[in-house]
Every structure is written in structure tokens, then in C-alpha cells.
């Protein structure tokens, strides 16, 4: 459990869901971690829990200054930066084109792309000079919606496809000093909700139905938990993957081989 011993990471969206799970696992693996999020209460709780091995930053990933602060404070505290995890993201609640309110399309599009796409780009821009010093690496949290339809509505799916483009372009541009990869989780049980401007048009589903729905969509019949993806992040963040860049690990229960529905 010391694959990341001595390394220093920043994790955006680290106060809940996959981001919190990754932050906790990185700490278990020996890393020091800067956790970036919006919930001041949760940030304070995590700081108290992990003490000197973490710093917490309250910020908005769509603002460059938040990323600059995270990088500056991380290097000030720990002396370097090895890993940047661009995990913060928002969702459209599967709202289809037909159900998108015309008077809220601009707002919804901007909200989702500002966090999911611009947030990642700004984070890398702020971090890459420090990552270059350590031959570090970048990991984006993508989605099954980066590859397949019906992983969200058209705005979310488009944003996640754009993030796949970022992984590939940045892997090309930042080589050989910095590796850039991604993890693509499938349906995962978290508290991720639709952005506020679309919540009133989202079809609500009770937790049990949602779990069965997710299980029905992948060959392994898994409704994944946030922790199920930790291994992929640890591998990509560690020296064991020093030959891997521009790659996405699809941690999705096998969606790419689902084929025709099995009647059994």
C-alpha cells in the first residue's frame, strides 16, 4: 500500500464521490494530497481527519485563480507536485435534447463545459510547470459517456467526449516530461446530481431502481462504488505506468463488449 510513497498530488472535486475515494486511497498509498472542493464544511472535516498530510483548498475549478492557489499552496507545503487529478465534474441528469428547456440551454451548456472541460484545461495550465520538474503525471476522470451514447444527455456526453480530446492532445504536447491519462468510470453510485438549472426536468429514480438500472447495463452486472475505480488511478499515478500516456482505463464493467443483450 505504498505505491505512491513520497509523491504529492492535487485532486479536484475531492470532497465527495470518486474524488474523495481517490484522495483517501492516495493517502493510504503514501502520498501527500491537496484536496480541492467547494464544500468548506467537508474540506474542514477532511483536514481534521488527515492532518499534516493534506491541505484543503476551497475553490471553483472554472476559475484559473483557484488552480493557481492550489498549486502554489501545495508546493509551499510539500515542496513539489507529482500528480494532478482533474476529477471535478457536473452532470445534466440524462436530460435529452427534446426535454432541454430552450431558455436554459445556454446556461446549462456553460455550466457543464466550464467545470468539466475548461476546469481540466485550467488545472493543467496551472500545474504543468511544476509537474515538468518532477516528470509527473495528469489523470482526468472521464466517463463511459466519453465513448458511448446514453451515459448522460447531449451536453454531458459532449463534454466528456471533449475531455477525451484533452487527454490525447495534452499527452502529445506534454511528452516526454509529463504523462497524461484518464480513467473512465461506468455507472457509479454517488451523490452526483444534475446541475440546478435542469433539476426540475430530471426524471427522479429511487436508489433501488437506479442500482438495478446500472447493473443491467454492463456485462459484469455491477453497480459500481466510488472505491471500485481506485486501482486504476493508483496505477496511472505510480511509477509502474511510466510507459503509459494518452491512455484511458475503462473501469465500467465491460461496456465495450456488451454486444447484443443476453437473454440468460
UniProtKB/TrEMBL annotation:
<dbReference type="InterPro" id="IPR002347">
    <property type="entry name" value="SDR_fam"/>
</dbReference>
<dbReference type="GO" id="GO:0018498">
    <property type="term" value="F:2,3-dihydroxy-2,3-dihydro-phenylpropionate dehydrogenase activity"/>
</dbReference>
<dbReference type="InterPro" id="IPR036291">
    <property type="entry name" value="NAD(P)-bd_dom_sf"/>
</dbReference>
<keyword id="KW-0560">Oxidoreductase</keyword>
<dbReference type="GO" id="GO:0008206">
    <property type="term" value="P:bile acid metabolic process"/>
</dbReference>
<dbReference type="Pfam" id="PF00106">
    <property type="entry name" value="adh_short"/>
</dbReference>
<protein>
    <submittedName>
        <fullName>3-(Cis-5,6-dihydroxycyclohexa-1, 3-dien-1-yl)propanoate dehydrogenase</fullName>
        <ecNumber>1.3.1.87</ecNumber>
    </submittedName>
</protein>
<dbReference type="InterPro" id="IPR020904">
    <property type="entry name" value="Sc_DH/Rdtase_CS"/>
</dbReference>
<dbReference type="GO" id="GO:0050664">
    <property type="term" value="F:oxidoreductase activity, acting on NAD(P)H, oxygen as acceptor"/>
</dbReference>
<comment type="similarity">
    <text>Belongs to the short-chain dehydrogenases/reductases (SDR) family.</text>
</comment>
